[in-house]
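Narrative of accomplishments. A recurring question from our advisory board has been how the design workflow behaves on a single, concrete structure rather than in aggregate. To address it, we present the structure tokens for one chain from the evaluation set, followed by the sequence designed for it. No filtering or post-editing was applied between the two.
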């Protein structure tokens, strides 16, 4: 059974950067498409970025293109989200997700962008 644990969230000023990590326990991490989602208060959860199992294909929401970079290291079962030029509207709980048969979520890490 794969479990996902996110880290790296925090408070940052507009224009700043953060790097989120998602560590997967268990085996077969490199079999799964992985995604980052976020959910702001009062809003629906939205897909931020996704990465193929081999890491060679990446997709981004229009709102984060050019500012966020998704990556993964299949040797240490970790996915990353490098976030730059952060904006107030990037404030949200960020979740990692593994596209397993049933879908698997992490517990989330809070990102707050505020001056």
């Amino acid at each position: 059974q794969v479990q996902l644990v996110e880290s790296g969230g925090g408070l940052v000023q507009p224009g700043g950067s953060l790097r989120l990590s998602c560590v997967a326990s268990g085996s077969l991490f490199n079999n799964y498409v992985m995604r980052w989602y976020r959910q702001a208060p009062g809003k629906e959860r939205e897909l931020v970025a996704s990465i193929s199992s081999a890491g060679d294909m990446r997709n981004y929401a229009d709102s984060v293109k050019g500012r966020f970079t998704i990556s993964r290291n299949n040797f240490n079962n970790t996915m990353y989200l490098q976030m730059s030029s952060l904006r107030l509207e990037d404030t949200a709980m960020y979740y990692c997700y593994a596209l397993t048969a049933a879908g698997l979520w992490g517990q989330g890490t809070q990102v707050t962008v505020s001056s």
